[in-house]
Amino acid sequence: MTIRLMVVGCLLLCLAVGAVCAEAPESTTGVLAVLAPVHPGAADEIATAEDTLVADGHKLLPAMRELLTCEQRALRDCRRDRVHANEATRHALWIDILDSALIRLNWPVDPQHCITTWMDAFTAPDGKPLRWQGLQCERRASRIVDDHLALLFPDLLFYQVQLSPATPPPAWLHAENILTVNRQGRVQVINTPAAQEVLFHSVVQPSLSTVQSEMIMGWLRLALALRGITPEQTTTCFSTNETTLDGTSYQVVQGKASARLLSACDGELSVKLFFADDTGQLCQVREEGTLHIVPSTH
Fold first, then answer.
1. Which of 77, 78, 217, 219 would disulfide-bridge 88, Cβ 3.0–4.6 Å?
2. Which sequence spans correspond to the domains of the chain?
3. Model confidence, pTM
4. Which of 50-64, 96-110, 157-171, 185-199 has the least mean pLDDT?
């Protein structure tokens, strides 16, 4: 099949599922021409497509943004309806490529390159190179896209990295890890509640109730990622109350993430953030309950 036929086929398919919001201009067709030949898990094809979009970024930028929004909506529809598994895979792949290209066009450094360089600096305890991956392919981290985290940490990008069980990890890396990349390219790892708490202590103006609600939802998003769970697999909510511990008054924001019916996870996770009444600063965090992926029986 020629590239032209592949583009036309993908364009018709996108229109059918609502992934293209309006009549496709020439720039949108150009973006589809780059995305259409890419296969899931093909690291070289993914990297080539991303580089091509970045090279033509100024010309394709509006179309890339519009297509990204439409693809995100189409993916949510696929996951909500639990249908079209192949289509969901394609939407996720295109979202990853478009998002990564847009990040490179708007961020001072290339986060994927920063993470790859950082990971390559370490080896497993047996001296072998680390084998790692994101959700798309090996040696490519998956960005955690979350409005709450973006508001709390505007100078950080968050990525998921999974280590292969075939390679024993260093003591400070786990099977599931979150890596942050700042605007200077510095990479830091978050894979424990303690490390997550250190990060959340840096939030500006935590005394504001609006900020506290963003903090609990942002915390839950990272806690789910560290368990390999996606937001679509759970329902989340939060509430606020006051309590007194050892004579000190606290504002408590509690969030819960519960497994959705028929999802691949089970259980419930409860998180409480304690803010001092007098200063408004985050004082402690408590995680309770279990929320985990259910092993496949197939």
1. 78
2. 3-106, 108-191, 204-298
3. 0.87
4. 157-171
